[in-house]
């Protein structure tokens, strides 16, 4: 397929070709469509950054699907749900200061980090992650992040209810319902969304 690109060797016409290829990424084999140019005058082939990214994106997409890692656009959307900065997300998730921004720009998270980011889709999980990071965040930042998360319009799924309601009373004869109420009434969870979800 002829393109409007010019050959870096002669300045002449180049054609775009594809071929099926395989590569190894993080010790796993992936198949993808490789794109490359061929100079008509010399027969020499080459790629550029745009074509390399096009090929790499195919591998990245397969890796993300295989390991449950959100796409870079999803990673950005999760942050925007809470109205937080990339730095704030990095602090809450326990990442390096610039790491969340790098993931939004396309860097591939480790599988464990990808699953952590997926957990942040749920407001209750996000509040838990914030509480776990409390000692490494300044008090003013903690309060600001807490308000942003509580005010965010994120669907709440109270998955713990089935576990506690179906559990046997503990040694102190506390029912599962009582334990769940204690959790929901914790300061970080105490807002209208959770009260409605738990039907309290």
What does this protein structure show overall?
Strand 3 (28-39) and strand 4 form a beta hairpin. The radius of gyration is 24 Å and the shape is elongated. With 200 residues, the protein is α+β, with helices and mostly antiparallel strands. The protein folds into 3 domains: 2-48, no CATH class; 68-155; 156-200, no CATH class. It starts with a strand and ends with a helix. A 4-stranded antiparallel beta sheet has the order 1-2-3-4, covered by helices on one side. Helices cover 49% and strands 16% of the residues. The protein is built from 10 helices and 4 strands, in the order E-E-E-E-H-H-H-H-H-H-H-H-H-H.
What is this structure's SSE topology?
Elements: E1 2-6, E2 13-25, E3 28-39, E4 45-46, H1 49-67, H2 72-82, H3 86-93, H4 99-104, H5 111-119, H6 123-132, H7 139-151, H8 160-165, H9 176-184, H10 192-198
Antiparallel strand pairs: 1-2, 2-3, 3-4
Helix pairs in contact: 6-7
Residue share in β-strands: 15-25%
Helices and strands, in order, run as: EEEEHHHHHHHHHH
Structural class: alpha+beta
- What oligomeric state do these chains adopt? single chain
State the end-to-end CA separation: 65 Å
**How many discrete structural domains?**
3
Major sheet: 4 strands, antiparallel
pLDDT under 50 segments (min length 5)? 157-185, 188-200
Number of helices: 10
Task: Please provide a brief summary of the model.
This protein has helices at about 50-65, 70-80, 85-95, 100-105, 110-120, 125-130, 140-150, 160-165, 175-185, 190-200, and strands at about 1-5, 15-25, 30-40, 45. With about 200 residues, it is of the alpha+beta class. The longest helix has 19 residues, at about 50-65.
């Amino acid at each position: 397929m002829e393109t409007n690109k010019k050959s870096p060797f002669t300045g002449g016409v180049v054609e775009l070709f594809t071929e099926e290829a395989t590569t190894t990424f993080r010790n796993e084999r992936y198949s993808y469509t490789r794109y490359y140019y061929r100079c008509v005058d010399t027969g020499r082939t080459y790629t550029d950054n745009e074509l390399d990214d096009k090929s790499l994106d195919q591998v990245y997409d397969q890796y993300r699907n295989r390991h449950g890692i959100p796409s870079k656009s999803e990673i950005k959307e999760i942050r925007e749900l809470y109205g937080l900065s990339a730095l704030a997300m990095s602090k809450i998730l326990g990442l390096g200061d610039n790491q969340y921004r790098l993931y939004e720009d396309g860097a591939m998270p480790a599988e464990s980090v990808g699953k952590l980011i997926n957990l942040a889709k749920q407001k209750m999980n996000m509040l838990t992650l914030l509480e776990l990071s409390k000692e490494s965040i300044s008090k003013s930042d903690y309060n600001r992040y807490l308000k942003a998360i509580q005010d965010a319009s994120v669907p709440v799924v109270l998955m713990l209810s089935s576990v506690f309601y179906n559990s046997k009373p503990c040694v102190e004869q506390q029912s599962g319902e009582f334990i769940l109420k204690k959790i929901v009434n914790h300061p970080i969870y105490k807002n209208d969304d959770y009260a409605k979800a738990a039907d309290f």
